C-alpha cells in the first residue's frame, strides 16, 4: 500500500498525536508498505519512510492572537500555515490512502479534487477528539472521510452508523517503556520524597492546577509536571504558593520519557476526558500505579485495578494518591498484560487490516 501520513508537527514536535501516528507509520513501513510522511520538521536518516518537509509557524507564536470562528485556537493557526505548504507538495495520485488527525485545513487539503484518476482513501484518526465527525456546525459541516479510526469505544459507538469506522487504540513501544531503575539525580528529583508525576500540557483541560491542589496536603510528596503551555505562569505561581520546594516543572526529550516514568512512584492525570491518552499505557508499562478520572473510557484502557476516582473531588484524589503510594510500597513494580497488549506492532496490524478492508470495498 502507498500511504501518506500528514500532520503539522511531524519531525518538529514530540506531542501525543505526532508520536502515535509516526509510530504507526514506522511499523507499516518496516513491514513492507510504501509510506510517506509530510510534516514541518526535517528528514531523519534512520526512519524507514520517506519524509517531505512542509513548513509551519509554531503555535506558540499565536497564543496572543484573537480566537474567532474557524481560527478557534493557536493550534488551528499553526495548522493553517502548514496546510498551505502541504497543498503545494501533496500529489494525490501518488497514494492509495492518506491519514491525518488534523482538522479543518489539513483534512480539507488532503481531500482536494483530483482531475482524472482515483482519489486516495481519506482516513481521519480521532487522536485529538471526534468533534469534526459528530458536529454539523460552522466549519465542521465540511468534514468528510472514507474511514474513521476511533481511538476509544465511545467514539466508535457514536460514529459507527454514520461513518465507516474501526476501533483501534493508540499504542506504546514496549521495547522502550518498561521497568527500570530510573535516574532521579539526572532529572533533578529529590531522593527523599515520593514522586507524583503528571505528563500534561499546561492548558485548562489538563487541570494541572487541580493536581497541585490535590498533592498539597501530602507533605512527603513532590509533584513533577512534565510539559509546557500557555498556562505556565499560572501553574508556577500556584505551585510556589501551595508546594514550595515540592514542585518541579520540566520538559524532556522523547528518549528521556521512559526514565521519567521509571523515576516516579505514582502517575497522576487530571483530564476529565481524552480521546485516548498514550500516557496511561506508557506509565503502566513502566510499573506505575495510575490515579485518574473514573470513566468507562479510561477503564477500557487501564482496567479495573487502578486508582480511578471523581477527580473533581480533590479530597478523593488526595486519598487515591495516598492509597496508590501505599500499594507501590507494599509490592514490587510489575507490568500488566494489559499494558503489553498496546504494543505498536499489534496496533499497526489493526491499521493494515482496516485499510485492506476499505480498499477491497472500494474496488
Q: How would you describe the overall organization of this protein?
A:
There is one protein chain. This protein is an alpha/beta fold and 363 residues long. The chain folds into two domains: 2-171 and 343-362, Glycogen Phosphorylase B (Rossmann fold, 3-Layer(aba) Sandwich), CATH 3.40.50; 184-340, Glycogen Phosphorylase B (Rossmann fold), CATH 3.40.50. 36% of the residues lie in helices and 16% in strands. The protein is built from 14 helices and 13 strands. The protein has helices at 16-30, 74-89, 105-110, 131-134, 153-159, 184-187, 208-215, 232-242, 257-262, 279-285, 296-302, 314-330, 337-340, 344-362, and strands spanning 2-6, 34-39, 50-53, 97-100, 121-125, 147-150, 165-167, 194-199, 221-226, 247-250, 266-268, 290-293, 307-309. The strands form two sheets. Strands 3-2-1-4-5-6-7 form a seven-stranded parallel β-sheet, sandwiched between helices. β6 (147-150), α5 and β7 (165-167) form a beta-alpha-beta unit. α1 (16-30) packs across α14, α7 packs parallel to α8 and α7 (208-215) crosses α12. The radius of gyration is 21 Å and the shape is globular.
Amino acid at each position: 500500500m502507498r500511504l501518506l501520513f500528514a500532520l503539522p508537527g511531524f519531525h518538529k514536535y514530540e506531542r501525543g498525536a505526532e508520536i502515535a501516528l509516526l509510530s504507526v507509520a514506522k511499523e507499516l513501513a518496516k513491514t513492507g508498505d510504501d509510506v510517506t510522511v509530510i510534516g514541518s520538521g526535517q528528514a531523519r536518516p534512520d526512519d524507514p519512510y520517506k519524509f517531505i518537509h512542509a513548513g509551519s509557524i509554531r503555535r506558540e507564536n499565536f497564543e496572543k492572537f484573537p480566537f474567532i470562528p474557524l481560527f478557534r485556537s493557536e493550534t488551528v493557526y499553526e495548522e493553517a500555515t502548514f496546510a498551505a505548504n502541504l497543498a503545494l507538495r501533496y500529489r494525490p495520485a501518488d497514494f492509495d490512502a492518506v491519514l491525518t488527525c488534523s482538522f479543518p485545513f489539513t483534512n480539507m487539503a488532503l481531500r482536494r479534487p483530483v482531475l482524472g484518476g482515483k482519489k486516495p482513501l481519506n482516513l481521519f484518526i480521532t487522536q485529538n477528539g471526534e468533534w469534526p465527525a459528530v458536529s454539523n456546525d460552522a466549519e465542521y459541516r465540511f468534514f468528510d472521510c472514507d474511514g474513521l479510526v476511533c481511538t476509544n469505544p465511545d467514539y466508535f459507538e457514536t460514529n459507527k452508523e454514520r461513518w465507516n469506522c474501526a476501533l483501534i487504540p493508540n499504542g506504546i513501544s514496549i521495547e522502550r517503556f518498561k521497568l527500570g531503575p530510573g535516574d532521579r539525580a539526572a532529572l533533578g528529583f529529590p531522593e527523599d520524597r515520593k514522586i507524583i508525576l503528571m505528563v500534561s500540557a499546561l492548558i485548562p483541560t489538563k487541570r494541572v492546577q487541580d493536581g497541585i491542589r490535590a498533592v498539597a496536603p501530602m507533605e512527603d510528596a513532590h509533584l513533577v509536571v512534565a510539559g509546557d503551555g500557555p498556562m505556565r505562569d499560572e501553574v508556577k505561581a500556584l505551585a510556589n504558593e501551595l508546594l514550595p520546594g515540592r514542585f518541579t516543572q520540566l520538559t524532556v526529550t522523547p528518549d528521556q520519557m521512559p526514565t521519567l516514568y521509571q523515576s516516579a512512584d505514582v502517575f497522576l492525570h487530571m483530564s476529565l476526558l481524552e480521546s485516548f491518552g498514550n500516557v496511561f499505557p506508557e506509565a503502566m508499562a513502566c510499573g506505575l500505579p495510575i490515579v485518574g478520572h473514573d470513566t468507562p473510557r479510561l477503564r477500557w484502557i487501564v482496567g479495573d485495578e487502578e486508582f480511578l476516582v471523581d477527580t473533581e473531588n480533590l479530597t478523593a484524589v488526595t486519598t487515591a494518591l495516598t492509597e496508590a503510594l501505599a500499594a507501590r510500597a507494599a509490592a514490587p513494580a510489575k507490568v500488566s498484560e494489559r499494558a503489553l497488549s498496546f504494543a505498536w506492532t499489534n496496533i499497526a496490524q489493526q491499521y493494515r487490516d482496516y485499510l485492506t478492508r476499505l480498499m477491497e470495498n472500494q474496488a
